[in-house]
Amino acid sequence: MLQIAQLDKKPEIFYSIQGEGKSIGKPSIFIRLSLCNLYCFWCDTDYTWNWEGTNYPHLNDKNPNYQKFNKADSIIKLTEKQIIAEIQKYNCHRLIFTGGEPLVQQKKLLSLLAQLKKQNPQYHIEFETNGTIIPIPELEALTNQYNVSLKLENSKVRLQERLKPKAIHFFAQNDKANFKFVVDSPKDLDEILEIIQKYAIFHDKVYLMPQGTKPAILRKKQQWLVEICKQYQFNYTDRLHILIYGDKRGI
Ligand code: SF4
C-alpha cells in the first residue's frame, strides 16, 4: 500500500500541466504522495507532513485560521492496482510522482512503476524530489527524469538534513537530473553558487524559481530573478499553475 495525499476523501491524483521546471507546460498526471523527511518553512504541500503534535514552524502560523494537519485524515492508502486505475482514467503518458517527498516510499513504488512500464513502455516517469535520498538501482532504472529541488537556508531546515553530499553527488552525475532552486531573495544566490560549484552542476541544468503562492508575489520577484538567470545562464522557471489557477490543490 502506498500513502497518497488525501483531498476531499479522494487520492490526490490528477491531470494537469506541469507548472514548474524543465517540463513546464507539458500535460502530466500528478500522483501526490504523502510524507516528507524535511519541514520547509514555506512548504505549500504542508498537508503531507505538518502533523498535529509536531513543533515545526510554518509561514502560515501567523494566520489565525491555520492549523496543523490530522495525519489520518490527510492520507489515503491505495494498492498498486487502485493507483493504476486512477492513472488510466487519463489519456496521458507523463507521470509526475511528487509529494511530500516521494522517495520516502521508494521501495513500495518499485512494483507500481514496473507494472506501469510493463503495461506501456511509453510511460515517462518523473520524480519531484528534495535530493536527500539516493534512488535504489531498480527505481533508477525505471525513472526518466529527476527534478531535484535542493533546499536553501530560506527553508529553515537544518543544513545536515537538507544537503546530503552523497545524494547530491548521485544526482549531479546523473544525466536524468535537473536542479530547481526556490529563491526567496537575491541573497540566496551566494548559497546556490556555492552548491553548484561544490558539486560541479552544469549551469544549464539549473532552474531558478521564485518562492511564493500568490501571483502578485511571484511577479515582484520575476524581474530581479530573470536578471540573475541571464547573468549566470541559469534557466528561469515560473510557477505556471499558480499564475493560472491560484494556490489550489488538485489542479
Ligand atoms: S521537501 Fe518539499 S514537500 Fe518536503 S517540506 Fe520541503 S517543500 Fe515541503
UniProtKB/TrEMBL annotation:
<dbReference type="GO" id="GO:0051539">
    <property type="term" value="F:4 iron, 4 sulfur cluster binding"/>
</dbReference>
<comment type="subunit">
    <text>Homodimer.</text>
</comment>
<feature type="domain" description="Radical SAM core">
    <location>
        <begin position="23"/>
        <end position="247"/>
    </location>
</feature>
<dbReference type="Pfam" id="PF13353">
    <property type="entry name" value="Fer4_12"/>
</dbReference>
<dbReference type="GO" id="GO:0016840">
    <property type="term" value="F:carbon-nitrogen lyase activity"/>
</dbReference>
<dbReference type="InterPro" id="IPR024924">
    <property type="entry name" value="7-CO-7-deazaguanine_synth-like"/>
</dbReference>
<feature type="binding site">
    <location>
        <position position="100"/>
    </location>
    <ligand>
        <name>S-adenosyl-L-methionine</name>
    </ligand>
</feature>
<feature type="binding site">
    <location>
        <begin position="149"/>
        <end position="151"/>
    </location>
    <ligand>
        <name>S-adenosyl-L-methionine</name>
    </ligand>
</feature>
<keyword id="KW-0411">Iron-sulfur</keyword>
<keyword id="KW-0004">4Fe-4S</keyword>
<feature type="binding site">
    <location>
        <position position="40"/>
    </location>
    <ligand>
        <name>[4Fe-4S] cluster</name>
    </ligand>
</feature>
<protein>
    <recommendedName>
        <fullName>7-carboxy-7-deazaguanine synthase</fullName>
        <ecNumber>4.3.99.3</ecNumber>
    </recommendedName>
</protein>
<dbReference type="InterPro" id="IPR007197">
    <property type="entry name" value="rSAM"/>
</dbReference>
<feature type="binding site">
    <location>
        <begin position="17"/>
        <end position="19"/>
    </location>
    <ligand>
        <name>substrate</name>
    </ligand>
</feature>
<dbReference type="InterPro" id="IPR013785">
    <property type="entry name" value="Aldolase_TIM"/>
</dbReference>
<dbReference type="GO" id="GO:0008616">
    <property type="term" value="P:tRNA queuosine(34) biosynthetic process"/>
</dbReference>
<feature type="binding site">
    <location>
        <begin position="42"/>
        <end position="44"/>
    </location>
    <ligand>
        <name>S-adenosyl-L-methionine</name>
    </ligand>
</feature>
<feature type="binding site">
    <location>
        <position position="45"/>
    </location>
    <ligand>
        <name>Mg(2+)</name>
    </ligand>
</feature>
<dbReference type="InterPro" id="IPR058240">
    <property type="entry name" value="rSAM_sf"/>
</dbReference>
<feature type="binding site">
    <location>
        <position position="32"/>
    </location>
    <ligand>
        <name>substrate</name>
    </ligand>
</feature>
<keyword id="KW-0671">Queuosine biosynthesis</keyword>
<keyword id="KW-0479">Metal-binding</keyword>
<comment type="function">
    <text>Catalyzes the complex heterocyclic radical-mediated conversion of 6-carboxy-5,6,7,8-tetrahydropterin (CPH4) to 7-carboxy-7-deazaguanine (CDG), a step common to the biosynthetic pathways of all 7-deazapurine-containing compounds.</text>
</comment>
<keyword id="KW-0460">Magnesium</keyword>
<feature type="binding site">
    <location>
        <position position="36"/>
    </location>
    <ligand>
        <name>[4Fe-4S] cluster</name>
    </ligand>
</feature>
<feature type="binding site">
    <location>
        <position position="98"/>
    </location>
    <ligand>
        <name>substrate</name>
    </ligand>
</feature>
<comment type="similarity">
    <text>Belongs to the radical SAM superfamily. 7-carboxy-7-deazaguanine synthase family.</text>
</comment>
<keyword id="KW-0456">Lyase</keyword>
<comment type="pathway">
    <text>Purine metabolism; 7-cyano-7-deazaguanine biosynthesis.</text>
</comment>
<dbReference type="GO" id="GO:0000287">
    <property type="term" value="F:magnesium ion binding"/>
</dbReference>
<keyword id="KW-0408">Iron</keyword>
<feature type="binding site">
    <location>
        <position position="43"/>
    </location>
    <ligand>
        <name>[4Fe-4S] cluster</name>
    </ligand>
</feature>
<dbReference type="GO" id="GO:1904047">
    <property type="term" value="F:S-adenosyl-L-methionine binding"/>
</dbReference>
<keyword id="KW-0949">S-adenosyl-L-methionine</keyword>
